[in-house]
């Protein structure tokens, strides 16, 4: 029996990490073995690549896309696939669709390029369900200001036009793959958003019965 693979996507500050924690706790409480992980990161090698990508001065667009794909490859091979194969569920804060939105749609690479890197790097692994959180930019910014006190990383600090493009790219992906994506308005309280998350995941839980 393989586990289920759930990813959380959206712009910075929409509440992905908060919802990831709530979801993993809820699944564990139902007796479902489940791990939380994140991208870029999740393994020692991928966390090292995360620091290169986010804490430095940045890379040329193709190198940036390759580094995200390389981090993902290590993460899939060493953590995600083994967990799924032993029957554990995996909840991942960002995954492939972040590369499609940030490097593919808003960046210079395009969707085909990102999907080619993913085919090579991670054997094309796709999530069973992807939750896309949406929030008006001003609300996301207020949450980020409170969390990070004005400090942002190499990608978060790109301008509003870039982040608007990212949001449009995410929306297009969700439109194109309605069977995998569920879009969740993230403006409510953490508990209200969590209720919507559980509603979106319920069909996967029912397949276990
Ligand atoms: N539903 C919510 N309403 C208000 N604040 C929230 C909500 N969800 C998360 N936050 C807060 O907003 C900030 C960003 O949330 P976080 O989960 O880190 O977002 P992300 O992982 O998408 O960047 C954190 O300080 C978090 O505590
Ligand atoms: C996984 C991934 C992340 N990113 C970016 C999005 C974020 O700006 C950054 C990861 O930071 P993260 O810590 O996830 O940001 P936040 O919690 O604020 O949402 O890397 C990409 O550009 N491509 C990718 O494939």
Automatic annotation (TrEMBL):
Molecular functions (GO terms): kinase activity
Query: Lineage, please?
Result: Bacteria, Pseudomonadati, Pseudomonadota, Alphaproteobacteria, Sphingomonadales
The answer to keyword ATP-binding applying to this record is yes
Tell me what reaction this enzyme catalyses. Answer: dTMP + ATP = dTDP + ADP
Query: What's the protein called, per UniProt?
Result: Thymidylate kinase
Instruction: Say which domain of life the source belongs to.
Output: Bacteria
Report residues binding ATP. 10-17
Q: List membrane-spanning regions.
A: none
* The protein's enzyme class: transferase
Q: Which PANTHER family match?
A: THYMIDYLATE KINASE, UMP-CMP KINASE 2, MITOCHONDRIAL
Q: Which HAMAP family match?
A: Thymidylate_kinase
